[in-house]
Amino acid sequence: MTPPPSGQQFSISHGDQRAVIVEVGGGIREYRMAGRDVLEPYDVLAMADGGRGGALIPWPNRLADGKYRFDGVDQQLPLTEPAKHNAIHGLLRWRPWRATDAQQNEVTMRTTLHPRKGYPFYLDLAICYALADDGLTVTTTATNLGETAAPYGCGQHPYLSPGNGLIDGAVLHFDAATRIVTDDDRQLPIGTESVAGTPFDFTTPKPLGALTIDHPFTDLARDDDGRAWVRLRGNDGAVAELWVDDSYSVIQLFTADTLAPAHRRTGLAAEPMTCPPNAFQSGDGLIRLTPGATVQTSWGARLTSA
Questions:
Q1: What is the pLDDT of residues 141-150, one digit of tens each?
Q2: Cα(276)–Cα(144) distance, integer angstroms
Q3: Which of 297, 287, 209 is nearest to 251 (CA)?
């Protein structure tokens, strides 16, 4: 029998929660609570489209021309978004990861990013997926195994589910003060604007309607625990929630209008990112991971009632 395109499947559960983590990309294929999707899944017989559930390492989002300079050395990465002449979403989305520390309610996926042309740095990486009474927690840990400092950023690409139907009828609550404005052709940052008075102001909950969004947002409002939240209330009244800790300064929202027709606007991507697009060039939010140093970041999701 041919194995699934996403490789080996690792199921974890806790109470009425169930999640499936995959070998390819170390990502999450589905997460359900009480039989209702929290994160929009993709089929076990399908390849992940639109970055669905994948880990975005060692940079999230886009890098113009795949070029950057770090510590005085110019680097060139492959153009993985050739139509826009960008490198996008890191180097590990299609690499196999191995499962370790597997328990009923959690599993850790691991891989090593060896030095390569365009990224001559050496990282050990682990992503722990854990279910508990308060939902799903995803913790990414990166350690620099090399002898030189490495540029680093990370993110992930979950889609919040509205339940049945499209996101058009869902109500979004997202308290971010600033939208990072990108150009139309390549979706690279060209400035910022306050969301106040614009269609992108969801500081007060309102329906998404037909609004198209594919933008990063920052200046995130945070609760007493330092968490910022995205909340999507579906037509069934259930609320799919995503939170990020204070290591994630940016969340990209994507209404999936450019995906294959069957997946357009069926989920809202809410992508935690430690840095904005093009950070390898701009240095904005870029982590300088020194030899032997470790950085850990966390986000999570859950389902609540309205």
A1: 999 999 999 9
A2: 21
A3: 297
